Amino acid sequence: MSVSRIPDPAKISIDFLYAVASGQLDNLSLFQTRGNNPDIDAATSEDIIPWGGLYAWQSAAVAMEIISTNAADDDPAGTGARTVLVTGLDASWNIQTATASMNGVAAVALPGTWRRINQVLVLTVGSSESNVGTISVRVTAGAVIQSQVLPGEGIDSVGIYTVPNGYSAFVLSYFLEISRAGTGDTLTASLWRREPTVPGPRIKSREVTLATGGTTSFNYENPVPARIVGPYDLWINGTAGANNTPTGCGFNLLLESTT
């Protein structure tokens, strides 16, 4: 049995977070999710994912593959991304990882089966120093996208995270950003959560509406973060007031291993 080392939420300090980040507390870690949706349309509910629309949650563990839109993302001699680390959850909602050697525009199968993809990170590169194309992790049957790394970014841009089995999460903060030239354009967005094994109901956290005549951002520091016991889905969804609204988001998590 583990003993929680989380302080009273009101007493979480920079010193405590630094101790976690530097590995001084071995059952605690930090994780940041960031998302991007370049084109939310008016009165349309979309998740903050680069390919738009609503995320396709998988109800069972399935085979997945990784692919790029550019042949330069190739191992061992490509100028772009050569190897990529994929982190996700297996059939039992436990953390699993795989390192994939890229093969350009040809799909590479990931070992095993996957319920969720939590991070895609470029590990090794050629002379371009990052991925040249868009790298997608997708369901093998039907090519349903589960995560994407945009060109030159080296890490995924998906505003979604699933707390693994054996972990608890605390949402420390989250942010939203929209960027449009039109005065009065708006974005209404919320952080959502649900227990996926039942599946449980979708539960909305604080809703925020941003209005812009350029770029507007919102940062929320959670004064009393609740314990979220995995497995649990977290994601940000938004509805725009005008077509073609570029939206960014992210949330910061404190993770506690409970096993």
Structure in words:
- It is a single chain.
- The model has no long low-confidence stretch (mean pLDDT 91).
- This protein is mostly beta strands and 259 residues long.
- The termini are close together.
- It folds into two domains: 14-48 and 160-257, Jelly Rolls (Sandwich), CATH 2.60.120; 64-149, no CATH class.
- It is globular, with a radius of gyration of 19 Å.
- Strands 1, 11, 14, 15 and 17 form a five-stranded antiparallel sheet that branches. Strands 2, 10, 12, 13 and 16 form a five-stranded antiparallel sheet that branches.
- It has one helix spanning 14-21, and strands at 28-40, 45-47, 64-68, 81-89, 95-101, 108-109, 116-125, 135-139, 145-149, 160-163, 167-179, 185-194, 203-212, 215-221, 228-229, 232-240, 245-257.
- Helices cover 3% and strands 49% of the residues.
CATH class of the largest domain: Mainly Beta
Measured by DSSP, the beta-strand proportion falls in: over 45%
The CATH architecture classification of the largest domain is: Sandwich
User: Which structural category fits the helices and strands?
Assistant: mainly beta
Q: Helix fraction?
A: under 10%
* pLDDT averaged over residues: 91
Query: CATH topology of the largest domain, what is it called?
Result: Jelly Rolls
Domain module tally: 2
Distance between the termini: 7 Å
Number of DSSP helices? Answer: 1
Number of strands: 17
How much is the radius of gyration in Å? 19 Å
Largest sheet: 5 strands, antiparallel
What does the overall shape look like? globular
Order of helices and strands: HEEEEEEEEEEEEEEEEE
Which parts are unreliable, with pLDDT below 50 for 5 consecutive residues or more?
none
